[in-house]
Amino acid sequence: MLVLLAEDLRLEDNLAFAIASDTGRDGFAVLRVQPEARGRPTRTRHRHEIEDAAEARIGEELRHSRMPFEVLRPHDDTSLVTACRRLGCTSVIRNAADGMAAENAHRVGWEQELHSAHIPFLTVNGEMIRRVGPGGAKPDQPFLSDDQAVAQEKLSDDHPIRLLRDFLRVLPERNYLADMWIPGRDRVSSSQLSTHFAAGTLSSHRAEWETAKAEKLWHAANPERSRSTEGTSFRHFRSRIAMRTGFLTTFSRYKDKPSRASLTPAQSERLSAWRSGNTGIPMPDAAMRELSATGWINFRLRQLVTSYGIQLLQLPAVEVGAALAELFDDYEPGITWPQVALNDGTLMQERGPRILNPVKQGNDLDPSEAYIRHWFPELDSVPAGFGHEPWLWFDNPLPAPLINHKAAFRDARARWGKRDQVFMSRDDVLRTHGLS
Ligand SMILES: Cc1cc2nc3c(=O)[nH]c(=O)nc-3n(C[C@H](O)[C@H](O)[C@H](O)COP(=O)(O)OP(=O)(O)OC[C@H]3O[C@@H](n4cnc5c(N)ncnc54)[C@H](O)[C@@H]3O)c2cc1C
C-alpha cells in the first residue's frame, strides 16, 4: 500500500497512515508530493522550513521501521503508477483533502491514471469534514492516534504537538479573546500554530482533544475561577479550532474561480502599492508590510487588508486572494478563499460585504500609533494624533493617499446596493452549515 501525503504531513493522527500500517501486511511505503508539484502556489520560506522539518521527522521515523519514504518535488515525475511500480505497491490510500481547481485537476489525473492501471485509490476522511466526492462521508468519530504514541517524552522541542502543549500551559495567563486582534499583543496571545494546521503537521482534532484535556485539568485545579477570563480562554480557543473545520467544510461546496483577472495599468499600479504597503494610508499599509516581512498577521488585520484591497481600492477579489495566498505562511485555500468571498460579499451575501474604514480601524486597533510607527519610522516627524491620517499634518512624510478613504468607503456602500451577483444562495449556505 502506498500512503500519499499532502497537507496531512504527519504520521500521528493520520487515518490513511494508520490503515496502511494495520492492513499493509507486506509492508507499505509513504510518498509525499510537495505542494508546488500538485498545483499549489509557491510556499513562503517559513512554510517551507516547517514542512522540510516535518519531512525530515517522518523520514527518520520510517527509516527506523524500515519503511520506504519518498518526497516528490516540483520537477519530479509525479506519476503515481510509476511510484507504485518503483516501490512495489499495488494500492494507494490518502486522506480526503480539498484544494483549488488546479489541485483537484491533479487528483482527477491521478484517479484516471491509477484506474487505467487497475490500481485501487482509496480516499478516507479522518478529519470529520463533511465533503462531497470521494471519501465524502462525515465519520462518526474523529481519528486520533493512541495517546501513548504521542507521549511528551517522544516529542522533539519543535514538534507541533509539543508546541501546542506549551501554548496550552500559558493560555490562561494570556488574554486570548481580547488581545488576539491587537497588533503587538496578538503574537503572544494566540497560538501561532496556523502554519502547522495548514501544513497538516498538526491535526485539528488533536488540538481540540489536547485543549479539552488541558481545560479539564485547569478547572479541576481552579474550581472557583471557572467563569474568569482565564477559565474561558480554553473554550474560546477550542471554538477557533472548530471554525477551521467549519471553513474547510464550506470550501468543499464552494466553487473557486481560478482564472486571474486582466488588469488595467492603473489597477496593476494599485495592486502593487497595496501589496507592498505603499498606498499612503498607514494602517492597511503597515499590515501588508508586517505580512510581507513575517508571513503572518492577525485576523482583524487580514479582514482589513482584504476589505481595503477589494472594496476601497476596487482590486479584483481574485487578485487580492492570489496575493494573500503567496504571502501567508499558513495559506489554506479552504479559509483564504471563503474569507475573500465573505469580504467581497459573494458568500453569505445577506450579511453584505465587509466594508471597513481603514482610519477608524487604525484608531480602534492601534490607538497609541505604536504599530504604524514601527512599520513607518518616517512618521517620527508627525505628532501623536496624526499618525493614522498623516495627510492632515502640513508636512506629510508619506506619499499622498491613492484614494480619499471616506469617499471610497461611501462609494463601496453605494455600489453594494446595486449588486445582484450571487455565488451561494442563503439555502446553500444553511445546508453547508447543516442548518436546514
Ligand atoms: C482574509 C482572511 C484570510 C485568512 N486566511 C487564512 C489561511 O489561509 N489560513 C489560516 O489558517 N487562517 C486564515 N485566516 C484565519 C485567521 O486569521 C488565522 O487562522 C489566525 O490568524 C491564525 O493565527 P493563530 O494560529 O495564532 O490562531 P489562534 O487564535 O491560535 O487559533 C487556533 C487555530 O484556529 C484556526 N482559526 C483561528 N481563527 C480562525 C478563523 N477566523 N477562521 C478559521 N480558522 C481559524 C486556525 O487554524 C488557528 O491556527 C484568514 C482570515 C482572513 C480574514
Could you name the CATH homologous superfamily of the largest domain?
DNA Cyclobutane Dipyrimidine Photolyase, subunit A, domain 3
CATH class of the largest domain: Mainly Alpha
Shape: globular
The Rg value, from CA coordinates, equals 23 Å
Structure keywords:
50% helix; mainly alpha; binds flavin-adenine dinucleotide; globular; DNA Cyclobutane Dipyrimidine Photolyase, subunit A, domain 3; five-stranded parallel β-sheet; single chain; 19 helices; 436 residues; Rossmann fold
Can you offer a commentary on this structure?
A 5-stranded parallel beta sheet has the order 3-2-1-4-5, with helices on both faces. The chain is 50% helix and 5% strand. It is built from 19 helices and 5 strands. It is mainly α. The model has no long low-confidence stretch (mean pLDDT 90). The radius of gyration is 23 Å and the shape is globular. It has 3 domains: 2-124, HUPs (Rossmann fold), CATH 3.40.50; 149-253, no CATH class; 265-432, DNA Cyclobutane Dipyrimidine Photolyase, subunit A, domain 3. It has helices spanning 15-23, 45-64, 80-87, 101-116, 160-170, 176-179, 186-189, 194-199, 204-221, 229-253, 265-276, 282-294, 299-312, 317-327, 333-344, 358-365, 370-375, 405-418, 426-432; strands at 2-5, 29-33, 69-72, 92-95, 121-124. It binds flavin-adenine dinucleotide. The site of flavin-adenine dinucleotide has 26 residues, from α8, α10, α13 and α15.
Task: Describe the structure in brief.
The chain folds into 3 domains: 123 residues, HUPs (Rossmann fold, 3-Layer(aba) Sandwich); 105 residues, no CATH class; 168 residues, DNA Cyclobutane Dipyrimidine Photolyase, subunit A, domain 3 (Orthogonal Bundle), CATH 1.10.579.10. By secondary structure, it is mainly alpha-helical.
